[in-house]
Amino acid sequence: MPDIKELQKTLGISFNNPKLLEQALVHSSFINENPAHAMGHNERLEFLGDAVLDLVIAEKLFLDYPDISEGEMTRLRASLVRRETLARIAGDIRLGSYLLMGKGEEATGGRGKLPNLAGALEALIAAVYLDLGAPVVKEMIIKLYAGEWKKLSGRGAAIDYKSRLQELAQSRFQEIPAYRLISESGPDHDKKFRVEVLINAKVLGDGIGKSKKLAETEAARLALQRLADTYKE
User: Fold this and answer.
1) At what angle do helices 43-64 and 70-81 cross, to 10 degrees?
2) Whole domain around residue 15: which residue ranges?
């Protein structure tokens, strides 16, 4: 069995029952080649870890992004829990190097395969949850996802304000919002753009940003705020 002390050090946690962590690292191919092995593979843990991860991600999206819609939260969660994202995070902590797998699977590059890495990360999450509880696993997941949250903070809400305004404008006014550049100022390294958003030729928001996209986002946010104040739903 690989040395799991280094993995625990990387995660910043210490298991009460290291056997749970060991089981999270056992790939089914190892059991297929070694049926007498006392410990089972990690697929049941993977099932539980998937549910735990979904809950932690959903809660963080709900609390940290109070202005985004249910549909946008669903899209963001899907991008955060998809196999490619899980495998990338697993790669960051070198999880593949700790896996116990069959010789055949390893010979075909099993330690780097997306399903194996994603499944192992979910199994690891379940093991932490069962051994150390919900608060510890939540803290670990948020830490592992630090890079993903940073990326989302720059694009998640921006996508939502414009899409939400378009959905609202189409349902309420049967119109698509139009964005109009009003001004552009400042040197190339410090530009400022001012954009208006119009619905039915009426200006509903006026945003300023360091790019046209950011200015449009701010204009959409202000327009949504104005519409919310005007129409109490």
Assistant:
1) 140
2) 5-144
Domain shared by 168 and 140, yes or no: no
CB of 216 within 8 A of CB of 162?
yes
User: Residue 232: which pLDDT band, with cuts at 50, 70 and 90?
Assistant: very low
Residue 155 domain-assigned (yes or no):
no
pLDDT of residue 233 exceeding 50? no
Same domain, 84 and 184: no
3-state secondary structure of 184: strand
Look up 218 and say whether it is catalytic.
no
Amino acid identity, position 25: L
Which one of the listed residues 22, 122, 131, 216 is annotated catalytic? 122
Of the candidates 7, 23, 40, the one whose C-alpha atom is nearest the C-alpha of residue 131 is 23
Mean pLDDT of 124-136: 97
Report how far residue 104's alpha carbon sits from residue 111's, in angstroms, rounded to the nearest whole number. 11
User: Any catalytic annotation for residue 122?
Assistant: yes
In DSSP terms, 199 is beta-bridged to 202
Query: Residue 193 burial (CB < 10 Å; 0-12/13-18/19+)?
Result: buried
Given 50, 72, 131, 196, which residue is catalytic? 50
Domain count, the chain: 2
Q: Are residues 113 and 212 in the same domain?
A: no
Q: The domain spanning residue 177 has which CATH number? A: 3.30.160.20
Is 17 part of any domain?
Answer: yes
